[in-house]
Write a structure and sequence with these properties.
With 300 residues, the chain is an alpha/beta fold. It has two domains: 5-91, Arc Repressor Mutant, subunit A (Orthogonal Bundle); 131-286, Glucose-6-phosphate isomerase like protein, domain 1 (Rossmann fold), CATH 3.40.50.10490. The chain is 57% helix and 7% strand. Strand 4, helix 13 and strand 5 (237-240) form a beta-alpha-beta unit. The radius of gyration is 22 Å and the shape is globular. The relative contact order is 0.11.
């Protein structure tokens, strides 16, 4: 896929601002311009709409909607709609986010959660580039220092990656606040690797850390819900996962799924070494009596 036109105008934050800037491209056709204008006039509705619904709004056919998306650098309407949705949701506060989901709520939170997350995992399975899992694992295994940067709910996935990687023999530093991030990345070099988690709303520290690493030649692997952001544009690799929740928060479930895949691939980079680390950790747990039931059979 070509680099989306948005990367040249990433200063526009809201979906409406972004779309207005795209519409001003002198090379855009009249029919594509009508499609974009229709979306601008109803961003929230468009973020859920089918290509046929957008086509009816713009007075064009569905093929024109697909061509409009491709002109903007996306594979098709589904990908463009996801970007519009992410941009729309990123401007909402938690209360506004909950209100935006209320109209689609069934009244059964567990059903809403399961239904939405099944869709997310199906999307992840359908669209994710599998090679990025092994590439990320190999980068972590080969680095001198491994730094994981994550805040808010994304810190759950960040801590999990650090935990699993450590057990497999690849100890990581986990940074969650701006002060610790600033203090601990100052001496990073090209032999190190940084993994940054950022979904829903973009934190300033994520952009700061990515820009700093880029200047130093430090590889950055970004786990995010949008490839079309200033931080994704500066990262070496963007691993894109769905993040929309069903209430006042984003979901970390797809991020955790990706983290577990990376962790499994990391073990396999040097399975013998990782096996030794796991056995050593298990032995120490037994010596300290951490587990109620010992995993080591007692000698009789």
């Amino acid at each position: 896929m070509q680099q989306p036109l948005q990367n040249r105008i990433d200063a526009f934050r809201s979906a409406e601002e972004w779309l207005h800037a795209l519409k001003n491209n002198p090379q855009i056709s009249k029919s594509c311009e009508r499609v974009i204008q229709c979306i601008i006039e109803g961003v929230e509705q468009a973020s859920y709409a089918t290509a046929a619904e957008v086509a009816a709004c713009a007075g064009v056919n569905t093929a024109t909607v697909s061509r409009a998306a491709q002109f903007l650098g996306f594979d098709g309407w589904t990908e463009l709609r996801s970007e519009i949705r992410n941009r729309y949701l990123s401007t909402l506060s938690p209360v506004q986010l909950r209100d935006a989901h209320r109209s689609k709520a069934s009244g059964e939170p567990l059903e809403d959660a399961i239904s939405l997350y099944m869709e997310h995992l199906a999307s992840l399975r359908r669209t994710f580039d599998r090679s990025l899992v092994k590439k990320t694992a190999q980068a972590l295994a080969g680095a001198k220092r491994r730094v994981i940067i994550a805040s808010g709910s994304s810190a759950v996935a960040g801590r999990l990656l650090g935990h699993h990687a450590g057990l497999a023999g690849y100890r990581c530093e986990i940074l969650e606040d701006p002060v610790s991030i600033s203090n601990n990345i100052s001496d990073l070099c090209s032999d190190d690797v940084v993994v940054i988690f950022t979904v829903w709303r973009l934190y300033r520290w994520a952009l700061f850390a990515t820009e700093f690493c880029r200047e130093r030649g430090v590889p950055v692997y970004l786990i995010t819900d949008s490839v079309n952001t200033p931080v994704a544009d500066k990262a070496d690799h963007a691993l894109v996962v769905p993040s929309e929740g069903f209430s006042f928060f984003p979901t970390v479930l797809p991020s955790i799924c990706l983290v577990e895949a990376i962790s499994a691939a990391l073990f396999d980079v040097d399975a013998d070494n990782s096996r030794n680390y796991l056995e050593s950790a298990e032995k120490k747990w037994d010596e300290l009596g951490i587990l109620y039931y010992s995993s080591t059979p007692s000698k009789t």
